[in-house]
Design goal:
Mean pLDDT: 86
Number of strands: 7
Helix content: 25-40%
Low-confidence stretches: none
Distance between the termini: 18 Å
């Protein structure tokens, strides 16, 4: 059984929690102090082996997770970061509604480079979100318009983080 590498991108505005989501998923921890990502940070997580439903053989994936700084800083090089990605999590901060509207721009830019890649919308910081139905409605509407799902996560508590990456993996070739 060989290891199949899959490039995954985390996209979103400045300070929405992309690095914290990656740290929670890859290392199972959360840092209270804020560290700005400059350019891109690449992490890897080896997923457990699964049986490929197509031919029954066991496959194992290594996710290469590209945590990309807010695109407003590196707009001219973003397409290079996206090339070859199998999927992306586009992340908004539920406590900053303006970051939800930016998801459409990030997703469209990503899909312009990778039209067949799986895309999932994430509302992060659910642990401190007040449950505003208007914000949740905007997320759900945007996910319908983008033809994808939206999930709520908390990098701090870990709620929904593993599920978000697993949902992404189910839409990528070799994981059904």
């Amino acid at each position: 059984m060989g290891l199949i590498k899959k490039k995954i991108c985390l996209l979103g505005a400045f300070a929405v929690g992309k690095t914290s989501l990656t740290e929670r998923f890859v290392n199972g921890r959360f840092e209270e102090k804020y560290l700005t990502t400059v350019g891109v940070k690449i992490s890897q997580k080896i997923m457990p082996p699964v049986q490929d439903p197509g031919d029954g053989r066991m496959v194992q994936h290594a996710f290469l997770i590209w945590d990309i700084a807010g695109l407003e800083k590196f707009d001219h090089v973003a397409d290079n970061y996206f090339r070859g990605a199998s999927g992306a999590l586009t992340v908004a901060d539920l406590t900053r509604p303006e970051t939800i509207e930016e998801l459409e721009r990030f997703g469209a830019r990503f899909r312009s480079v990778n039209p067949e890649a799986k895309l999932i919308l994430i509302g992060n910081k659910a642990d401190i979100f007040d449950g505003d139905r208007g914000i949740l409605g905007r997320l759900k509407r945007l996910s319908r318009e983008c033809g994808t799902v939206c999930l709520l996560t908390s990098a701090k508590s870990g709620a929904g983080v593993e599920e978000a990456f697993l949902e992404l993996s189910r839409g990528i070739e070799g994981f059904s």
